[in-house]
Amino acid sequence: MSPICYLSRVAHFSAAHRLHNPSLSAETNRQVFGKCNHPGGHGHNYIIEVVVRGPVNSETGMLISIDDLKQWIKSAVLDIMDHRNIDQDIAYFKARPSTAENIAVFSWIRLSQVMPPGLLHQVIVSETIKNKASFSGEGLTDKDIEACIV
Prior knowledge:
- The chain is of the alpha+beta class.
- Helices cover 33% and strands 27% of the residues.
- Strands 3-1-2-4-5 form a 5-stranded mixed β-sheet.
- Helix 2 packs across helix 4.
- Keywords: Lyase, Metal-binding, Tetrahydrobiopterin biosynthesis, Zinc.
């Protein structure tokens, strides 16, 4: 049996958003999201860390090729999110707030659709150096996956 290893890759993207839930009143949105609900929105330089888990290949000494992981992150997340207005440009966020938590879930779903099954372990999204959210796939439903459209 091969040793099980965890491998992570960090990438970054810049994007604008507004914390807002269209199903709440304007006043409730202001109360819940504060200054992050400003109608003009605001931007972040996000950092995404993708963690994979699996056996080390005895021939290559690697879990996977870093080049493959870089390409999966680029195609599934960066090409969709970088230099975009998350709320306006990505259909998934038209019905839900673009919080770090929801961005982590969205990124997980997108990555799980392009990576080999069972390889993705965790996605961590840092909105600022002080705020980050992580997601490991718990609680996803088919409805969540179907809603993950760009």
